[in-house]
Write a structure and sequence with these properties.
Elements lengths: L8 H7 L11 H21 L4 H6 L5 H17 L11 E6 L6 E5 L10 H6 L14
Antiparallel strand pairs: 1-2
Length: 137
Amino acid sequence: MTNVVYATIDDLKDLFTGSVAFPVSKEAEMEKQLVIASEWLRYYFKSVGRDLDKDILNGTCSAILVGNIVANVVKRGFVNSVSTIAPDQDVSQVSQSAGPYSMSYSPSSGSSGFYLRESEKKVLGLLRNTASMIKLY
């Protein structure tokens, strides 16, 4: 089941709402990004000792959720690469001032690279609650 692309261009188009429109002129590039993001996520799973394709086959991960996450990863990469950041985009820091009307936003990712949110890691089962004990002397 290798080389499966988990999201389609239509999945990606559905995510572009609000202040950022789908970049029709970059559709071919966005399709390539979906392929790359799918491979990136597959590699990410391997880096933690898991196989994404097997997890989907055995029901540990939902193919629909994986597709949605891949589409969101590509969208974030594009949105964070544009020069203006709007309040409804994925931001980690917001600053506002009253006078002389200043407003600034910082993207969640400092670059246009791929990254997973903590909530996405949790949905994919990549975050596990662990307990440890400290021995007190």
